[in-house]
């Protein structure tokens, strides 16, 4: 976590919980769509990233997805954007949700673009992880009760 002055105040170490294997016939179209959100002129975050990025999107390509979630007809929708990059060798995933912020490209995508500005200028050192899979176990604890626990 980074404070308002740009200092790292807390680091969250990633944990690998599992892996999903997708065949290229499924993975490649998904990746093309996520990349197009930022790279294609008709992509929903194209103008945001091309006007706000202080780095070369050709050298450091970003992929992402905008989202808008309506919760009530009386309120502005929730705005969200998730981006990852660089797409050639992903190092970061950034997610922003703005409650009642409007459309994803208008409120959340600019926050993610600014975050990538920081990450490109101030790369965070890599973290080595040991593969760790958390497996849930379920046991019957009563006539109508089941308990599920996570073990490492």
Write the layout of secondary structure elements.
Elements: H1 24-39, H2 46-52, E1 63-69, E2 78-85, E3 92-98, H3 108-121, E4 135-140, E5 146-151
Antiparallel strand pairs: 1-2, 2-3, 4-5
Helix pairs in contact: 1-2
Descriptive labels:
about 150 residues, alpha+beta, 3-stranded antiparallel β-sheet, two-stranded antiparallel sheet, 3 helices, 5 strands
The ordered string of helix (H) and strand (E) elements is HHEEEHEE
Helix content: 10-25%
Question: How would the global form be characterised?
Answer: globular
Rg, rounded, reads 19 Å
For the report, how would you describe the main beta sheet?
Answer: 3 strands, antiparallel
How much of the sequence lies in strands comes to 15-25%
What are the low-pLDDT stretches, counting only 5+ consecutive residues below 50?
none
Q: What average pLDDT do the residues reach?
A: 87
Determine the N-to-C terminus distance: 26 Å
The largest sheet has its strands arranged as 1-2-3
User: What structural class do helix, strand and pairing data support?
Assistant: alpha+beta
- Number of E strands: 5
Assembly level: single chain
The number of distinct helices, counting runs of at least 4 residues, comes to 3
Tell me about this structure.
By secondary structure, the chain is an alpha+beta fold. The protein has a domain at 24-121. It has helices at 24-39, 46-52, 108-121; strands at residues 63-69, 78-85, 92-98, 135-140, 146-151. The strands form two sheets. A three-stranded antiparallel beta sheet has the order 1-2-3. It has a two-stranded antiparallel sheet with strand order 4-5. Helix 1 (24-39) crosses helix 2. The longest helix has 16 residues, at 24-39. The mean pLDDT is 87.
